[in-house]
Amino acid sequence: MNTTKLKQIFTQYKILALLLATAAIWAFFSFKTDGDFTSARNLSNLMRQMSITGILACGMVFVIVAGEIDLSIGSLLGLLGGVAAILDVTHHMALPLGIGLVLLAGLAFGFLNGFLTAYAGIPSFIVGLGGMLAYRGILLGVTHGETISPVSDDMQVLAQGYLPPALGIALGVGLFALAAVLALRSRAALARHNLPVPAAWRGIVRVLVTGVVLAAFVSTLNGYEGIPYPVLVLLVLLGVFSYIANQTVFGRRIYAVGSNMEATRLSGINVRAVKLWIFGIMGLMCALAGLINTARLAAGSPSAGTSAELDVIAACFIGGTSMRGGAGTVHGALVGALVMASLDNGMSMLDVDTYWQMIVKGLILTLAVWIDVATRTGRR
């Protein structure tokens, strides 16, 4: 089998390979921890932990697909989480109003980054680097370098609450039904346009595998206290961002901008407006992640979000998002986030030294980018 054929196979089944790698990581850590890693309690904590990286990865996929980068997201997460804590603890603001203000602030900061990149012509790398320093400085200023705590019980529920087991089962059944309907609609659409329709057994197997995964997911989390609220938020975002990417004109324009920006501009698409909006969405995701992080810690910390941008970018690259732009999926980035969270969680349980954790994650990021380069040699 020649090299080109191997590249095609790997590209086609990249997510499957990544899921198998995740299973291998889980098996290794489960063996080393005598099964504690795969206990219902730890997996619930793991899912809650990866949800913050996953939320940020949803926005970062669009940024990278469009050929840009945002290094300020960790600092912006910390700033907006700190603002949420101040509004809650110091000003005793009603939770819905506080959440609304933080989300609006995130959107505004995102638009600022997008304006500087798309309209002022400053490279996004520099805008992100400047934002990383500036937002962290503002955070230290507004918190006076002190932890703001404790946040109200209502806010803590955002990250520490659980969906009742019965509703979790209903959610799993609903998602399975949705998967079956989407599979049928996909086959009908192919037939309607006189395109080749895959064998029926493939679709059946895919839906059945989805059902098994959903059953394992729901039963495992229900084995502790239920599905954590942050995981529910992440599932909603997965659906929304996947729909935007695959079913909307805006989503197609994002991929077009990343594939060939000049050709996209000459076709009449407002490239700068597209970039402005993807950075605005990224800021909104920073606000949401900041709220959940503050609720999870029950405090606003001046060090919150430190180096979060590295985990998020790594998750996107591991999940198949191309560093050159024009290619990437939201579900792939979330699998990448799961890989990063699994490594963090497992190595922490084994008391692996921090420097080794950094080395391992750095090597995995480098490997992911190398794979992208090796499998896309024909791209420009």
From TrEMBL:
Localisation: Cell membrane
Record keywords: Cell inner membrane, Cell membrane, Membrane, Sugar transport, Transmembrane, Transmembrane helix, Transport
Chief location bin: membrane
Membrane topology: Multi-pass membrane protein
Domain of life: Bacteria
InterPro entries hit by this protein: ABC_transp_permease (IPR001851)
Segments passing through the bilayer: 12-31, 52-73, 93-112, 119-142, 162-184, 204-221, 227-245, 274-292, 355-374
The protein's role, per its UniProt record: Part of the binding-protein-dependent transport system for D-xylose. Probably responsible for the translocation of the substrate across the membrane.
Designated name of the protein: Xylose transport system permease protein XylH
Native source organism of the sequence: Massilia terrae
Species classification: Bacteria, Pseudomonadati, Pseudomonadota, Betaproteobacteria, Burkholderiales
